[in-house]
Amino acid sequence: MRQEHLDFLATVSNAYVGIGLQSFDNAVLAHVDRTYDERRFDETFAKLDAVASLAVEIILGLPGDNPETFRRNFERARRLPCALRVYHCVVLPSGLMVRSPPEHRLDYDPVSLKMLSCTGWSEAALAAECRFLTRQASLQGGRSGEFFWTFPPPR
């Protein structure tokens, strides 16, 4: 994020920015060739928060994640003064489908590409966390669909 981006966003009426974090956990992110720098995130978040409405975006069902670490990530994201979007992991041809090693044990729907189970997630655990997110979205004034859950900023 450069100053020119922030300057531009400051001129946009009702700017809304999604921060595609995926996870706060570097061990999880390593499985999908990503990293997380907490200091950089905090700095960027503060700069963006000054010029736009924000939503943090995390992914449910990443290989190497599990229900406990996902729940910690969810709770951490809900403490931020912004909206939250949670997306169900899908196995994209340009992503996990070609880059994921066999030990990730990806099992996904061949039509929708929705992750059914993988390393760290049994099918039952993933389904249970989907039910949890649907309940939370309903209780917190959010929305849910087959592949996503949205949550308004905390009050």
Descriptive overview:
The chain is of the alpha/beta class and 155 residues long. 39% of the residues lie in helices and 21% in strands. The protein has 6 helices and 7 strands. It has helices spanning 3-11, 26-30, 38-49, 67-79, 96-99, 123-139, and strands at residues 16-22, 53-60, 83-88, 107-108, 115-117, 143-144, 148-151. A 5-stranded mixed beta sheet has the order 1-2-3-7-6. A hairpin with a 3-residue loop joins β6 and β7 (148-151). The radius of gyration is 16 Å and the shape is globular. The chain starts with a helix and ends with a strand. The mean pLDDT is 93.
Brief synopsis:
This protein has about 160 residues and is of the alpha/beta class.
For the CA atoms, what is the radius of gyration? 16 Å
Biggest sheet features: 5 strands, mixed
User: Strand-and-helix sequence, N→C?
Assistant: HEHHEHEHEEHEE
Shape: globular
Adjacency order of strands in the biggest sheet: 1-2-3-7-6
Number of strands: 7
Amount of helix: 25-40%
Q: How much β-strand is present in the residues?
A: 15-25%
Number of helices: 6
Q: Which structural class best describes the helix and strand composition? A: alpha/beta
